[in-house]
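If it is no trouble, might I ask you for a protein's amino acid sequence along with its backbone structure tokens?
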Amino acid sequence: MGKKGKEAARERREQRRREVTRLRALPYEPHQRWWDLLEPRAVAVVTGANRGMGFEAARQLALHGLHVVLTSRDAAKGQEAAGRILEEAPDGARVSVEWRQLDVADAASVEAFAAWALQTHGGIHVLVNNAGVNFNKGPDNSVDFAEQVIETNYYGMKRMTDAMIPLMKPSPYGARIVNVSSRLGRANGRRNRIGDASLRDKLLNDDCLSEQLIDEMIKRFLEQVRQGTWSSNQWPQMYTDYSVSKLAVNAYTRLVSRTLWDRPEGQKIYINCFCPGWVKTDMTGWEGNISAEEGADTGVWLALLPCEQGTHGKFFAERREISF
């Protein structure tokens, strides 16, 4: 892309950014605020929410009036984050937040959290799978922590989704699952895609897509990492382990959406994923170009979509659908 092309692309991004800022300022109409029609208050769970994007998603959902369960591995950091949301809330705001310990990479922790959520709240209405890790910054592309990245970003998301689906409360407005992903995980991206054309086609073909296909892809990647035979020609070229994990998140989102959409009215669950963009957080080494507040917006928007606009199994960025 030449200089003029880059400038045009930059201008398009800024134009869309301004449009999303305008949309964020528009209040929801009373009939669109489905969460206000529930009694008791709608419950939203946000994983990895003690800082960055997760914190912002929890804060925005709380300000909209949902009861937010802010989760984190670290107790002190999580409790401090929940306290900040309460302390910084505008006067008169109906803000309700509580902290709960959760490590999505630990099956026992997820199981304990699910039991607590059922006993304490009788279930939930919204799940934001935000918890994730990335150990590469700038030009780095190490796979030294690939197993931890995959375990947290993919298996952690999968573990939480599977545990929370049975706890989604029946509602005429449907429940929501929002998975934080990345454009880096697009199966057929122009600059960061997997080299195996056959695998790409299978991942994008609903008739071929299966949990076994996704898990076998992950297993093959990790085996090659352990053997030192992985190649950036076969796998995404940028932040390879992170990109593979998000490729799996995207595929799993599409897969689960098919089973959830067949549920009867009153038990619908809308599941989607989104790319927040390059966000200024610790994960990016504070090198991003948008704030955590802006990055969380599309996820919060998906969590709160009015039921007449309900969508499922899609990938979004800046409040627009994008390709997988």
Summary: The chain has nine helices and eight strands. The chain has a mean pLDDT of 93.
